[in-house]
Design a protein that fits this description.
With 143 residues, the chain is an alpha+beta fold. It is built from four helices and four strands. The N and C termini lie far apart (53 Å).
């Protein structure tokens, strides 16, 4: 009896949402985190400072995918160029060439290859060092 009541309630709420023009869809894994929009810096496991795509709140738990354009994409492209030797332009636009480069990085690192930069890719890939007063801008490090 309680299950029938729950189904009716869900049906009513769903109908109200449709009537109001609201649509609810299931989100994929990338949608579970915000998009990366800024280029930031973070300490790597070895203590060096690496460039890192970050969300607008400054967090590293974000994603990038084809169609995005931001300084976060540019810092990702710079890491791919420097750390993996893949010749892509660091223009801040995540197009088909950047997607293919991310796929290559994911395969080299032995992780699931979907062409999206997210938590798994972030945690496994090497990131380019950034220059600061005690560190030259050459080399790469892992988180």
């Amino acid at each position: 009896m309680a299950m029938d009541m729950k189904r009716k309630l869900v049906s009513i709420v769903s109908a109200m949402g449709v009537a109001a023009g609201l649509v609810v869809v299931a989100a994929g894994p990338a949608a579970a985190s915000p998009g990366c929009t800024i280029a930031g810096a973070i300490a790597a496991a070895n203590g060096s400072i690496v460039g890192m795509p970050m969300s607008s709140s400054g967090g590293i738990h974000c994603h990038l995918q084809q169609g995005y354009a931001s300084p976060a994409v540019k810092v990702l492209q710079q890491s791919i160029r420097r750390c993996y030797g893949i010749n892509i332009v660091a223009d801040g636009r995540f197009g088909p060439l950047t997607r293919n480069a991310v796929l290559t990085v994911q395969r080299r690192e032995g992780i699931s290859a979907d062409g999206v930069y997210g938590p798994q890719t972030r945690d496994h890939m090497a990131h380019a060092l950034i220059a600061w007063e005690e560190q030259p801008p050459a080399g790469c490090a892992r988180l």
